């Protein structure tokens, strides 16, 4: 690029600025055409108030001469800026800068900022909700290392079979596979899910009460949108599932975290005149993350509470397929005669985490609105995947796959329990360390004494190649200290060596 030539316009701030910019193109300008680059630079000059509103631009001829480019490069640039509303043509002649952003800080203000001012990743500020999400302590501990929850052993997934079902669906080449689908999801899948949850979880439902979503977060979002108003009170398990808390609080609901015990969350005792919560989020079959199960008596208490006070119970049955001892408790929904329970299920823990198929079972009378709203807000998901999953379920493969997983996970759970008991016998004997989760689910929950900094232990563990999520990150008001260790993704033979890497850290923390 030629060096700036002195012209009769020298001294014009815009020309000086453009000449400088011209000689020092920004990285994102490299390789762009001259006209496009000039348009971009002039936009910046106007937005940064190098030229103030109402300022008359140099003529196209004068600017072309100053920048040593052809005038017919400059003319379309002015036209483009006029079309975009950056400049207007004057009544007689001349082109003038528009008043665009009265509150934009003048460019000069930038130079006066203290040099040590922290550099924001983006000049845009997060909302309060955004900050709440961004600052959640869980982010620090989420990894892809062994024992981190949310991971599964895909070597156990019947890829060939799944591919065959997928190919068969693709061969059908049914245009519906490429469509948005019916509100509520693929009818075949809704039917297969209804059959499955009726048989295995005692859920009462017809297929049209099943609404397919792309994850539990979306299911909860839908419930919050349709069933709650900002300011309504929501009762939450404490500690509890952080994503549910996040979604519900993002809807402006008043969160009321309430401590869980070994049997999950008890119904609240209302003070005279106190309004009952609009909604209670519950994981009765395997409280997340402490691993307690709610006995029948408490379930009936909840159902009576809901019927008396009009509270909606949101039952998240996220990993109910995994029970290793005795018969599973049937769902709360199946025990409800008053239509007060919305049941949530997911396939991310049984099929594969990326499948993004989850579902709600809504009470009779709500299904039409839920299906339509789901379609309007989020669309109906991947129809091909839904068809394949429907075949997988209807042909008995899903039940067989879950049986395989259940057998394997039972072994992994035992291996983890055994390895912990062997590595930390004194700590268990003195009860400074205990396993509080029951024989279900895909993680163990270890409780630690209150004074232990579980986050410090978890940080050390990550540095040693093992991820244990500190229990305290799931707690809101209560004080729970401990670690959550998932055994789902780690084959039996690898469990003991990994526990051996973690054990000295726990021993040291408990000895301090
Ligand atoms: C309590 C709870 N519910 C639901 C889920 C599953 O969520 P999704 O369906 O989005 O995979 C999880 C996953 O960790 C969970 O812990």
Question: How is the topology of this model organized?
Answer:
Elements: H1 13-23, H2 34-47, H3 60-67, H4 71-84, E1 87-89, E2 95-97, H5 107-111, H6 128-134, H7 138-141, H8 159-172, H9 187-201, E3 210-213, H10 216-227, E4 233-238, H11 242-250, E5 254-259, E6 279-282, H12 296-309, E7 312-316, E8 341-346, E9 358-361, H13 367-378, H14 383-394, H15 397-423, H16 425-429, E10 434-435, E11 443-447, H17 454-463, E12 469-470, E13 482-486, H18 492-511
Parallel strand pairs: 4-5, 4-6, 6-7, 7-8
Antiparallel strand pairs: 1-2, 3-9, 8-9, 10-11, 11-13, 12-13
Pyridoxal-5'-phosphate is lined by residues 150, 215-217, 241, 283, 288, 316, 318, 346, 348, 358.
Q: Which properties best describe this structure?
A:
512 residues; alpha/beta; Arc Repressor Mutant, subunit A; Aspartate Aminotransferase, domain 1; Aspartate Aminotransferase, domain 2; four-stranded antiparallel β-sheet; 18 helices; 13 strands; 42% helix; binds pyridoxal-5'-phosphate
């Amino acid at each position: 690029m030629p060096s700036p030539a002195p012209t009769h316009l020298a001294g014009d701030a815009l020309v000086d600025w453009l000449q400088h910019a011209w000689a020092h193109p920004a990285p994102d300008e490299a390789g762009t055409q001259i006209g496009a680059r000039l348009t971009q630079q002039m936009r910046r000059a106007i937005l940064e108030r190098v030229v103030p509103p109402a300022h008359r631009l140099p003529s196209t001829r004068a600017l072309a001469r100053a920048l040593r480019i052809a005038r017919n490069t400059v003319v379309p640039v002015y036209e483009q800026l006029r079309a975009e509303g950056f400049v207007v043509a004057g009544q007689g002649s001349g082109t003038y800068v528009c008043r665009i952003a009265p509150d934009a800080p003048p460019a000069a203000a930038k130079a006066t900022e203290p040099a040590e001012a922290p550099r924001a990743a983006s000049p845009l500020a997060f909302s309060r909700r955004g900050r709440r999400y961004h600052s959640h302590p869980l982010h620090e501990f989420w990894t892809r290392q062994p024992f981190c929850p949310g991971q599964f052993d895909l070597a156990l997934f019947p890829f060939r079979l799944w591919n065959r079902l997928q190919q068969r669906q693709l061969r059908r080449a049914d245009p519906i596979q490429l469509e948005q689908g019916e509100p509520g999801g693929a009818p075949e899948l809704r039917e297969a899910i209804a059959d499955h949850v009726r048989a295995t979880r005692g859920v009462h439902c017809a297929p049209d009460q099943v609404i397919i979503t792309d994850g539990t977060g979306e299911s909860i979002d839908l419930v919050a949108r349709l069933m709650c108003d900002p300011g309504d009170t929501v009762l939450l398990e404490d500690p509890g599932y952080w994503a549910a808390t996040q979604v519900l609080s993002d809807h402006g609901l008043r969160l009321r975290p309430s401590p869980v015990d070994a049997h999950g969350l008890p119904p609240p005792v209302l003070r005279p005149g106190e309004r009952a919560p609009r909604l209670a989020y519950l994981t009765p079959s395997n409280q997340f993350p402490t691993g307690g199960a709610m006995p029948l008596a408490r379930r009936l208490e909840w159902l009576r509470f809901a019927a008396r006070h009009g509270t909606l119970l949101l039952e998240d049955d996220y990993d109910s397929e995994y029970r290793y001892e005795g018969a599973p408790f049937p769902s709360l929904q199946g025990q409800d005669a008053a239509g007060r329970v919305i049941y949530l299920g997911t396939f991310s823990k049984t099929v594969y985490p990326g499948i993004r198929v989850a579902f709600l079972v809504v009470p009779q009378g709500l299904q039409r609105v839920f299906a339509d709203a789901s379609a309007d807000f989020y669309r109906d998901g991947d129809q091909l995947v839904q068809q394949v999953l429907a075949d997988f379920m209807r042909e008995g493969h899903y039940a067989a796959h879950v049986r395989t997983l259940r057998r394997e996970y039972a072994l992994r759970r035992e291996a983890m329990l055994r390895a912990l008991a062997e590595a930390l016998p004194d700590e268990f004997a003195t009860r400074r360390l205990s396993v509080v989760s029951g024989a279900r689910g895909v993680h163990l929950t270890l409780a630690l004494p209150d004074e232990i900094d579980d986050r410090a232990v978890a940080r050390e563990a990550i540095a040693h190649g093992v991820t244990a999520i500190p229990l305290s990150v799931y707690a809101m008001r209560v004080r729970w200290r401990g670690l959550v260790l998932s055994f789902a993704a780690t084959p039996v033979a690898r469990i003991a060596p990994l526990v051996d890497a973690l054990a000295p850290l726990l021993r040291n923390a408990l000895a301090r």
